[in-house]
Amino acid sequence: MIALPNHWRISEADASVLDAFGESSAPVQVTVNGVEVELDGSDERFVKVSVKRSAPSRRPRITLTRETKLDRDEKAQGLLRELQLGDAKFDALVFVESAADDAEVAQALSLDEARLAARRIIQAGAVSIVLEGARVDVKLAVRDRLNLDTVVDVIDGALTLSRPAGSGSARSSSKGWEGTELKGLALSLVVAAGAAAWVAMSSFPSGPVLPLVGAVIGLGLGYLIGRMLEGRLDASSTAGPVVLMGFVLAGAFSGVATLQTINGQGTQQVGEVHGVALDDATQRTSKDRVVPIDVRWSDGSETTERADRRIRRGDRLTRIIRKGLLGIEWYDQNF
Fold first, then answer.
1. What pTM, to 2 d.p., does this model score?
2. Edge-first strand listing for the sheet containing 290-297
3. Contact call for residues 97 and 130 (beta carbons, < 8 A)
4. Which of 52, 129, 202, 232 is 20 to 30 A distant from 196 in Cα terms?
5. More confident position, 177 or 17
6. pLDDT band at residue 298, thresholds of 50, 70 and 90?
7. Rounded distance, CA 63 to CA 96, Å?
8. Residue 266: is its pLDDT beyond 70?
């Protein structure tokens, strides 16, 4: 198998697809670091590599090609104008073409790592690199045979170019939603959503079905949000799995809390069950105002409930059964 960069997060299935690329002319798609990458080798002379992030970007359309002797001669004669970025190696190797303002183009290529990635891709044999928004399209020339290591290098460079200017390692000191900050947000949401779920289930104990449905729905939404944010992280960031798992758990807890709370609104009493305390709560060593006691109910069941410590053995207790807004019954302890 081909060697993949250590900072790539890629599934075994996608790695196998990448390893087999070139055996078929059909385009393939793989996911690297949470970003969709499409490879098209249907033209024997070229391989097309396309990378598009889900993050919005206003980057203008910019075309990068290898600067030729003709380009240099025409610039020297004043027949051709090209924006110079002040990076001697980049300016000497790469020709920049865009209809956008110079300031926009300079901002789009302001990161050292972006210019370095463009140079690497051009030196690998790329005919052109087209940047627009969060999308990068590379047209790689195939000389004698397809070299998968070169394709991997081009994909890695295209992933770097697809990141918006101002993200990544060059902006590690910023306060954006990246790396450690996003990981901290995910963990905070897990704690807050977990507490909300516990309060909702304690206040409106409706049984296992409703919490399970809420968890499944919330888990799906949390996964989608987590994948979207994970894709915006720097390729070398180790926060991705934590961010994804954090939003999955936070989504599941939020789903439980939301459905439980909705069901607990607009309730109506549909019945009541009476019981007798089997314990004397005043004999408990705990100093808490509410303590667990055993109760035998009129339907024959025995449960452990939390009741006021003033309850004595033989006291009559009542549990009110209510129907929630979603039609799910739950009980309200009236003791």
1. 0.51
2. 302-308, 290-297, 268-277, 316-323, 329-333
3. no
4. 232
5. 17
6. confident
7. 6
8. yes
Place of tokens 């894709």: 231
The pair of structure tokens assigned to 79 is 């027949």
Cβ contacts of 188-191, under 8 Å, gap ≥ 24: 189/246, 189/247, 189/250, 190/246, 190/249, 190/250, 190/253
Query: HSE on the CB side for 17, CA within 13 Å?
Result: 17
Residue 264: burial class (beta carbons within 10 Å; 0-12, 13-18, 19+): buried
Query: What per-residue confidence (pLDDT) applies to 233?
Result: 64
Q: What ranges in 231-274 are assigned the alpha helix state H? A: 240-263
The reported pLDDT for the residue numbered 333 is 65
* Residue that is written with structure tokens 């996608």 in the block: 14
Mean pLDDT score, 121-134:
93
Contacts 24+ apart (CB under 8 A), 208-213: 209/328, 210/259, 210/260, 210/263, 210/326, 210/328, 211/256, 211/259, 211/260, 213/255, 213/259
- Map tokens 């303590």 to a residue: 291
CA–CA gap between residue 298 and residue 165 (Å, rounded): 69
pLDDT digits (tens, 9 = 90+) for 22-49: 777 789 999 999 899 999 988 888 999 9
Contact 234, 179 (CB under 8 A): yes
Residue of 47, 230, 219 lying closest to 128 (CA atoms): 47
- Contact (CB, 8 A) for 101 and 67: no
